[in-house]
Amino acid sequence: MTDAERYDYDLFVIGAGSGGVRAARTAAAEGAKVGIAEDRYLGGTCVNVGCVPKKLYSYAAHFHDSFDDAAGFGWQLPGPATFDWATLRENKTGEIKRLNGIYQRLLESAGVTLYNARASVVDAHTVVLHNDAGEQQIHAKKILVATGGWPWIPDFPGSEYAIDSNRVFDLETFPERFLVLGGGYIAVEFASIFNGLGSETELIYRGELFLRGFDQEVREFTRDEMARKGVNLHFNTNIAQIEPSNGAYWVTLTDGKTLEVDAVLAATGRHANIEGLGLDTLGIRLDEQGKIPVNERFETAVPSVLALGDLIAGPELTPIALAEAMQLVDIHFKHTTPAPLDYATIPTAVFCHPNIGTVGLSEEQARERGDIRVYRTDFRAMKHTLSGSQERTLMKLVVDDATDVVLGAHMVGDEAGEIMQGIAIAVRAGLTKTDFDRTVGIHPTGAEEFVTLRSVSRR
C-alpha cells in the first residue's frame, strides 16, 4: 500500500496559530497534501488575544501622554480628552476579524484543507476530529501539534473572580481601578496599558522586582519609569484572597494591605495547551518546564508526531514559532539540513510604557563569560525638552573586552522595539564596538546614541 493509499494527508496540523499556519502553507508549497484543524480562531494567540490586540491597546494608551505632551508644542485641545472603551474594543474586534479572514484565505490559496473542529490524537498516524457534525477520523503520515499556550491562574481564595489575558481585551465595562497580578512581560504591559487608558492601576508581584531574566539595570529603570507614570507597584507580596463587594472586589494581599478594584487580571503565566489532545496515550509527556521534549527535527517521543512554538523549549515568541515552522518544513519536506536557529541573539520587545527593546546577553550573563565593557546613557529625549515630560530613556551596549564584539544591546524608551530591530542585525552579525563607532548617526534621533557611546561606564 502506498502512502497515498494509507494516509489522507502527508501532514496534518493541529492548531492554526502562527506556527501551525506557516508550517501548513510552506509544506503545501513543497507539494505535500496538508490538512489543519482549529476549534477556536484562526491566527492563534498572537492575532486574537496576544500580540496584535495588545499592541493596538498599547497604541491607544500612548495617546494619554501625547495629549499632555502636545501643549508644550503649542497645541491647545478644546477640552479634556475623554476615552471610550467600547470604541477601542469594537474597533479591535473588527481588525481581528479582518486578520482571521486573511489567514483563511492564505490557507485556501495554498491548497490546505481547513477543518473547524477540535482534534485529538489516537495513535501515531491517526487524528479524530470533533465538531457539531460528529466525529471524523483522519490518517496522516506526520502530525504536527501547534496548539500553543493557554493562560494559567493560580488557586487562592476568590481566584475565580480573576480574569486572564484572553478575557481582558473584551471587558464589558472599563475598570476605573485595575489590578494586575504577575511579574512577566504580559503583566507589566497590561499595567502600563490600563494606566495609560486612565485606570488607577496596581501591579502585584511576589518577587523583589519584575521581568526576571532581563538585564538588571533595564528592570530597575523600567520600575522607576512605570512608577513615574503612575503605576502603583507592590513587590514582595501576593494576593491572599479576592472578595466581591457591590460590583467591585476587595483584594487582600499577603502583606496585610487591602485594595478595592473593579477588575483583577492574573497575568501569571501560560501552560502548554494540550488538554484533551490525547498525547499522554501515546507516551508523550511534558518535561519539568511543562514543555514537550523534541529533538533537532522537532520530533516528539513518537517520531511521526511533531511539535513547535510555545509547546516546546525556547522563547515563547511568534517569530520563533514562524522560524521553527520553516525549519520543520525544510527538514521533513525539503529534506535539507538547515542551520540550527540561534536562540542567543533573538531580539524582543516589551510594550510597557516606556517600551523595552533588547537583544543578546544581559550585563549579568556577559559577566559570567568573562571581562566586559559596558557603555550606557540615560537622558530626556529631545521631544521632552518642550513637552515638559520627565520621562527618561536608557540605552546600553555590553561589549566583550577581549574581542570588542557587542554581546548585548538594551533600551528602555520611546519606540525601543522599532529601534532594536535594526540593532539586532548588528548583534546577530557579530559586529564590534568599533563597527558601531564607525557608523554615522542619524541626527537628531534618539537611536543615534547607540553609535555615539564613547566612554566606558563600567567594566
Briefly say what this structure is.
Helices cover 30% and strands 24% of the residues. The chain is of the alpha/beta class.
Name a few traits of the molecule.
459 residues; 24% strand; five-stranded antiparallel β-sheet; 30% helix; 21 strands; alpha/beta; seven-stranded mixed β-sheet
Description:
30% of the residues lie in helices and 24% in strands. The protein has helices at 3-6, 18-29, 44-49, 51-70, 85-110, 185-197, 216-228, 318-332, 363-369, 384-387, 416-428, 433-437; strands at 9-14, 34-37, 113-115, 118-123, 126-131, 134-145, 149-151, 177-181, 200-204, 232-234, 239-245, 248-253, 258-261, 263-266, 270-272, 305-307, 348-350, 356-360, 372-379, 393-400, 406-412. Strands 1, 2, 3, 4, 5, 6 and 16 form a seven-stranded mixed beta sheet that branches. Helix 2 (18-29) packs parallel to helix 5 (85-110), helix 2 packs parallel to helix 8 (318-332) and helix 4 runs antiparallel to helix 5. The relative contact order is 0.12. The mean pLDDT is 97.
